[in-house]
Amino acid sequence: MTNQPGVASLPQAPSLPVASAVRSTPRVWLPVVLLGLFWVIYSVWRWTELAISLGFMGFLMLLAVGALTTLLFAIWWMTASRVTWPERLLVLAVAIAGGVACALFGHRLLGPFLLLPGLPIVLTTWTLSLVVARKWPALGRGLLLTSVVCLSWGAFLLIRAEGMQGDGQLALRWRWTQTEEEHYLDTPEGKGKTAEPQPATQGLNLRPGDWPGFRGPNRDGTVRNVQMATDWDTAPPALRWKRRIGPAWSSVAIVGERLFTQEQRGQKEAVVCLDAGTGQTLWSHQDAARHEDVQGAAGPRATPTFAGGRIYALGATGILNCLDAETGGSKWSRDLTADAETKIPMWGFSSSPLVMDDLVVVFAGNDWGSGQRTLLAYRTDSGKPVWASQAGQRSYSSPQLASIGGEPQLLFVSERGLSAFRPSTGDMLWEHPTPPGNPGVPRAVQPRAVGTSGFLFDAGPDLGTTLVHVSYSDGSWIPTERWISRQLKPSFNDFVVQDEALYGFDGRVFTCIDLQTGRRLWRDGRYGSGQVLLVGDQSMLVVVTDEGEVVLVAADPNEHRELGRFPAIQGKTWNHPVIAHGRLHVRNAQEIACFEITARK
């Protein structure tokens, strides 16, 4: 505009381009919405039963959601965040470097946490810092973002993982604190101190009331001929002894006054014999071996088996030992990885040895799906291999002996379904296939015989529990499915049967279903990922929660009735409880305890 005569001209301030002014303030609504949606999805998965019902497939789905969130976040940051290019490149480079550093120098079992929820936590702190500093100068904002990202990743270097809880979440501890195993190794028992063993007055032979191996004489989690005191509210079971023990998910075998189990002692796996009345260590046999995985952490998984004066024990790395039950002296040893030409499974070898006449049978499959020799039989006296059969690749279960029409059959559950073999030769007699299911979730529950020809087994996390009946016709065994029920979906929690009802864990909730139809009768009792034992003569259920509490529940198909409870041991408890000679034995990866449970006179 032309100046008018006599009017002073005012200087005009230079105008800023509107687009530049807008670009100086970063956008934050997109990452806020994106991460908000992620945390809603994560919370539903974390705090509901969805994680249990979906299992490993649910984790993979959540992992995919996390990967998509990260990808969209990176695209926004590099293309639409409106921060300066030096900021974009610097902060992204620091975030990538921090993640690599955590992967290299973080605790060895922390990997899953770094992905979920570790990476989303870093992205969230990154976004919150940007919200706070969005109007700051570019230099100050960039320094804040790089500092926050470094601190977020750096915090993960201060923690360690101690395996997963029953809900699939990692147990986290400060990295500088002692582990329970290190506490145990500082005790006399952890250093190998043993008591003077008393000779067995009648020799070590099975007698009534003994518990010779995994889940009892019939591997069905049932104890008979026991009269248990049931007024736990006024007189809970009396503690006889309690002590530390090395990590393992083994249960115990009891013969007379001898208790046999396994534990990890630093870099050595140990089969140990304790005095069942005092808890003192009588002997230990140790092998230079150690197995750890993200879910179960350290230690053996299988339970020793007593037969003919000997102990048969399988370690997590595949060492099968035959030991003298009185002294712990070695009779023979085999390496399953060599015999089966396989590798150690991700979760470790977990098959509790089954002794049948002069054979001992174990499972040697792995999650890589290699090898055709997965069910192995050895001579009990010499360890000489007798036969090897293909029984599937993935299983956390153990061989089970059954009888159909008077004919003994060897049962096994794997990703293939339920298979039956001739014990003497390993020849397959019949198979009831089921879909493989989630590849990361091995079948873990023992098959259970019901009636003269019925068998219950875990059909997989997607299907639940199945009942089949087996008949013989025209020279062939024919399995026929009677029902399949999604109303009882066990994970690694074995069930028990009393009368016409089945009691077990549907996810993390205790459940009863009708044996004839598979229909749910009730679902109650939140005991986590616990285990159950049936006191058959009294129709009582002894449930051990995954936090080490013991609960007495009536085996009543009409309703869930809790009769009493008491705290037994501390820490994550997945091991099967045992009742023998009027005593309840419970253990986990850090403690073992014995309680008197018989009725007081």
Give an account of the 3D structure:
Mean pLDDT is 91; it is low at 6-11 and 13-23. The strands form ten sheets. This protein has a five-stranded mixed beta sheet, with no helix packed on it. Strands 4-37-36-35 form a four-stranded antiparallel beta sheet, with no helix packed on it. The protein is of the alpha+beta class. It folds into two domains: 18-174, no CATH class; 180-192 and 209-596, Methanol Dehydrogenase, Chain A (8 Propeller), CATH 2.140.10.10. It is built from eight helices and 37 strands.
TL;DR of this structure?
The chain is of the alpha+beta class. Helix content is 21%, strand content 33%. 45% of the residues are buried.
Number of strands: 37
Radius of gyration: 29 Å
The CATH level-2 architecture of the largest domain is identified as 8 Propeller
Looking at the structure, what is the overall shape?
globular
Count every helix, treating DSSP H or I runs of 4 or more residues as helices. Answer: 8
Largest sheet: 5 strands, mixed
> What number of domains?
2
Strand order of the largest sheet: 3-31-32-33-34
Fold-level CATH name of the largest domain: Methanol Dehydrogenase, Chain A
| Portion in strands | 25-35%
CATH class of the largest domain: Mainly Beta
CATH homology group of the largest domain: Quinoprotein alcohol dehydrogenase-like superfamily
Overall structural class, as computed from helix and strand content, comes to alpha+beta
Q: What is the averaged pLDDT score?
A: 91
